[in-house]
Amino acid sequence: MSIKESATLVVGGTGFIGKALVERLQNDQKNILYTSRRNSLDPRFIPLSSISNWRDLVQDRNINQIYIVAGKYQSSDNPLFWGDLWEANYTFPKQILDQLWDLDLRILLVGSFLQKNPAAKELWSFYTWSKECLRHYINLKAAESRAQITYVYLYDNFGPNDERLKILNILMKLSESDQPLKCGSSEQDLDLTHISDVTAGLILANNLSRKENPCEFQIRGIKPISLKNLVKLVEEYRKMKIPVLFGENIDRRPIFNLWNCAKEIPGFNCQITLEEFLSGNFETVRKQMS
User: What is the Cα–Cα distance from 227 to 184, expressed in whole angstroms?
Assistant: First the structure.
């Protein structure tokens, strides 16, 4: 009797990070599956509505690795969206983990903070809190878990075909005639990582051999950049003045420092700088991000 080929599952495989992760995994492996709230006709896609039990799915499809990159993001703290944030960032991944703790699996989850000092609790948003609650839940359950859990923190990321409402994308699309973009402090530090480096780091982290469980890592870009210098950099490549007002965004008026919450992934270094991304083929980049 033939042995069924093992599979890798990406939960959240139609998002910016998830889609790139699926394609990168496909380069190295044959049996890649993904699921998402969005529908797809891709034969690798498994509709969420068809999954009644994650344990059954894992055993039926012989899944030995899972990447959970699904979630919701909210830049400002609006109570109208707290229910959706809690369900996407805590209830949904917790449901998956609760059914898989005692199986021999490698499971990686993507975590993040809003760019605020984690020690300053009064600055935390509900988005940050929902992410942290899942992290603490994982830590509580770790001792009794057979599954190997990896939690990876990300800062911001960028790359081609990015449709998200992120600061780099906004700056790339603004014209001189548009209303000025209201930003926080011009000295706010940003850490931007190319999507190719993000996916490479996630795969490496999920395949590390270790005894600790869970293990936390972070993926950071090659070098941080201030918001003021990011605007200047985009202006340089766009060859135009971008209308920006600093210190006008209420949610980002304080200067938020970059956090350092976990260790670096052993043996991993980012390869692509923001300057290389923009200067490599700027007109193509701008079209891809529009």
Answer: 9
Per the DSSP assignment, residues forming a β-bridge with 63 are 7
Q: How far apart are CA 63 and CA 59, in angstroms?
A: 7
- Nearest 5 degrees, angle CA 120-CA 124-CA 126? 160
C-alpha distances (whole Å) from 285 to each of 136, 169, 172, 252, 281 are 39, 10, 9, 27, 6
Condensed to tens digits (0 to 9), the pLDDT of residues 183-201 reads 988 998 899 999 999 999 9
Helix and strand element counts for the chain (H, E): 10, 13
Could you tell me if 214 and 139 are in contact, meaning their C-beta atoms sit under 8 angstroms apart?
A: yes
Strand pairing report for 63-68 and 148-154 = unpaired
Q: CB count, 10 Å around CB of 42?
A: 12
Place of tokens 């070098």: 223
pTM of the model: 0.91
Strand partners, 34: 10, 45
Question: Percentages helix, strand, coil for the chain, rounded to the nearest 5?
Answer: 40, 15, 45
- The whole-angstrom separation of Cα 287 and Cα 153 is 29
Domain 7-160+191-224+257-273 CATH class label: alpha beta
Q: Which residue has the tokens 């780091």?
A: 201
Which bin fits 192, alpha (ψ -120 to 50), beta or left (φ > 0)?
Answer: beta
What pLDDT is attached to residue 152? 94
Q: Is the dihedral of CA 48, 155, 219, 163 positive or negative?
A: positive
Secondary element (H or E) of residue 150: strand 148-154
Please name the amino acid found at residue 265. I
pLDDT digits (tens, 9 = 90+) for 4-44: 789 999 999 999 999 999 999 998 877 999 999 888 888 99
